Amino acid sequence: MGDTLEKSSEEPEISLDNECSTKMGDLVEVSSGEKVKFDDTGLSLVLQNGLENLRLENSLTDVILCVGSREFSCHRVVLAAASNYFRAMFCNDLREKYEEKIILKGVDAETMNILLDYTYTSKMLITKQNVQKVLEAASLFQFLRMVDACASFLTEALQPENCVGILRLADAHSLHSLKQQVQNYIIQNFTQVLNYEEFLELPADILCSTLKSDDLYVTEEAQVFETVMNWVRYKESERFSLLPYVLENVRLPLLDPWYFVETVEADQLIRQCPDVFPLLQEARMYHLSGNEIITERTKPRMHEFQSEVFMIIGGCTKDEKFVAEVTCLDPLRRSRLEVAKLPITEHEPENENKKWVEFACITLKNEVYISGGKETKHDVWKYNASINKWIQIEYLNVGRWRHKMAVLGGKVYVIGGFDGMQRINSMEEYDPFHNCWSEAAPLMVNVSSFAAASYKKRLYVIGGGPNGKLATDKTQCYDPATNAWSLRAAMPVEAKCINAASFRDHIYVVGGAMKALYSYSPREDTWCLVTQFTHERASCGISPCNNKLFITGGRDEKNEVIATVLCWDPETQKLTEECVLPRGVSHHGSVTLRKSYTPIRKIVPGAVSV
């Protein structure tokens, strides 16, 4: 900022003679001894001290500022040079331009004296006792550098007991930088700030912007819910109508299901407010079906013990080698988490492990299910994130690969694929409670290497190959209520070796030879082009994570495996390269889940450490 905040008001007088004798300036350009360009760096101090002496002597002053019972003789030109407020007053054809005395309101005499001393000397003493008054006056009269100095002082003085007051002060005077710094402080020290009643005085908009932050420092979401309810009850008659507005910043789906039932749904204010019922329904659906529901409220906060991550499971490298590792990436923290390798089949030595290739995977209630595959066509396993282990469950009735899995209504579906002889229309439904598979309605069109996703009680099968050479553009829709399939709007292109993800009321489809990302709206039954790629990404993966879409690996038009991870941000509508995997991979699985945060090493731009 260039200013010095003095800790003492006792400043030595500056001698004009000394200043002139010790700072005579520099000869910055000499030409043949005939002329000189002289830069007198000390003149500004001479002028400043001269103006201050003229003010003290009441010489050449041309205006008197009246504040309460005190009068301050000043120079219009000095005030106009230092303050935009006085510049507008004296440089425009206003009444005050010609008046000898000007009455100022909104400031006390002591604070005005500090402002004028600063104007003439560039020095002031800021203390905890005067900073608020000085800031308010400096903001009123537009002494902008003084405002910055006060804001810097307040930033350094932030404490849990005073941060809310400073935040309200910054908000009142539109000090956006200070407001952002204080909000960041509250977010990082949230649990400490809650101990002070002043927090309950926060306006609703500031409270919401604070609670909305991914960086809010809480160990569990229950703290956020209790904060909202305490804030509403503090002025219940005024704030009850604001409950839906504030509660939408609580990530109810991330609450413990028992706490949600016993505390949230049982709360009398909650029960009396029908406008919050959609938020409760969203949480219930998430508890029932896990990652089938994806909203801004299902993303873990940065400081919780769990993080939303996406997994890159198995697949093939450029030399067709099988990948046994599961790469688990946390894009927010830019780190990798340790995950158990793909499982070996029952009673089989690890060195003879069957290859998990062209399998399918999905997430249900934070458990990853994998099924089928060229050499594991009947196998089904699930990964439990809490114990970091793969557990084998009931075999498929019909072995398959190049198929897909989807979650609908709390159940897992295995759809279509190839059985080694032909494309099949078989669909099986898994009941996790009874650990059994049962037949469901078969596909209308037999396909393999298609895309599948669920949305709002419907399951969608998109594209795929009806045989080894052709691809289809058909969109098949399954309704579990009628156990029947129907056709919806066709894709803009015929495609196979594709994948899909349900995200923000749309189903996004990528892969094959499309060189593009498409989205389908189940509500409107329409397709649109989202963005285009420079290369094909056949058999790539796609998964939503932290309110963005991540596209991993695949094969280009030269059949070369791809190592880059792309990120599509729906807010900015931009596609960027997130990172580069240590090796290219295709025909892999890609899913999202919440994982206990145990970082191994950071991801640096352009690479992923393994």
Automatic annotation (TrEMBL):
The protein, known as: KLHL6 protein
PROSITE patterns in UniProt: BTB (PS50097)
Keyword terms of this UniProt record: Kelch repeat, Repeat
Organism for this UniProt entry: Melanocharis versteri
Start and end residues of each BTB domain: 61-128
InterPro entries, A to Z: BACK, BTB-kelch_protein, BTB/POZ_dom, BTB_POZ_KLHL6, Kelch-typ_b-propeller, Kelch_1, Kelch_2, SKP1/BTB/POZ_sf
GO biological process, one term: B cell receptor signaling pathway
Gene3D superfamilies tied to this protein: 1.25.40.420, Kelch-type beta propeller (2.120.10.80), Potassium Channel Kv1.1, Chain A (3.30.710.10)
CDD domains tied to this protein: BACK_KLHL6 (cd18446), BTB_POZ_KLHL6 (cd18236)
